Amino acid sequence: MDIMWKKSISLTLALFFALYSNIAFAAMSSTNYQIQWDELSGGGGSSSSTSYGLRDSVGGSAAGARTTSVSYSIDQGFRAGVYDPVVDFVPYVQDKSTQVAATAFASNTVTVTTAAGFSVDDWIVIIQNEGASQVSAMGQISGIVGSNITIRSSYSGSIPTIDGSNDVVYRMSQTASSALGTLSTSTVSTQIIGWVASADVTQGFGVYAFTDGELRSGAYTLAGVSDGNVTAGDSEYGARSSDTTLATSTFDTQDTAFSTAPALVGSTSASSFSTSGFLTLKAAIAVAQHDGSYAQTLTAIFVGDY
User: How far apart are CA 53 and CA 79, in angstroms?
Assistant: First the structure.
């Protein structure tokens, strides 16, 4: 007989942004003032509308020309001296209350039993064989026709094979809580936490994650997975990343335990716009696991690779 573990395992995401820049300017200065760069031009300034902003200069010579050497580069023109980095990082959590069954997936279109509650521009996750070995993809809805939901081609994760057997779709939410729910000795519970990032950074960005300690309830803990796979019937907890190209951690190739030291869980090596990624959290218990409500704080850091 299965022993149910009546506890809600909650993971609270605290998000921090770290941005670094090594841009340098040739500047003129006096005791009280500094001119970082200058130009003789015919005018210009800043203008904006509801959706856009524009900064311009008029009449500058050789604007846009670039001169480079091994160690330096010179971008000519007044606007070249104004750098407005565009970075954005939005966390998402799988909303378990929005589950619908999926019956087919082809050409970026997933067929569900009902599309009620889903809207264009929502982020969703499509899961094949939900559980320990699930295959998942996170994408943004571009269109809905009847029970067919189409996502944009720039989705993250693997291509799921949907045949209607334990295949589901969830909406990703910015407000839902992250909880693994009530655990059983016969199954592995999963929860997806994701992100959508934009970074106007030539070398891209990295997403790092760490915790404040073990998943715990008072003096009792749920151990981090150590053999690469969270297995039903064993007391262990970990996660796997949708990014299969991580350079400095094992989250891309196996179920991996979190620690108090930041570990790379997602990355992009070039400038990106609305790039998504996610972690699949997994937890299982043994019969001897002590009852309780287990929790920890999971922190994610988004760092531009300048």
Answer: 14
Question: Looking at this protein, which amino acid is placed at residue 202?
Answer: T
Closest CA to 193 of 9, 4, 7: 9
Contact (CB, 8 A) for 113 and 101: yes
Q: For residue 78, what pLDDT is reported?
A: 60
Phi and psi, residue 34, nearest 5°: -145, 135
Chain region(s) in the chain for CATH 2.40.10: 98-172
Q: Specify the 3-state DSSP secondary structure of 98.
A: helix
Q: What is the mean pLDDT of residues 148-156?
A: 94
- Could you tell me the pTM of the whole model? 0.76
- Per CATH, which fold does 98-172 belong to? Thrombin, subunit H (2.40.10)
Distance CA(239)–CA(96), nearest Å, equals 18
> What is the Cα–Cα distance from 94 to 174, expressed in whole angstroms?
9
Other Cβ atoms closer than 10 A to 48? 9
Q: Which fold has domain 1-21+86-95+176-306?
A: Immunoglobulin-like (2.60.40)
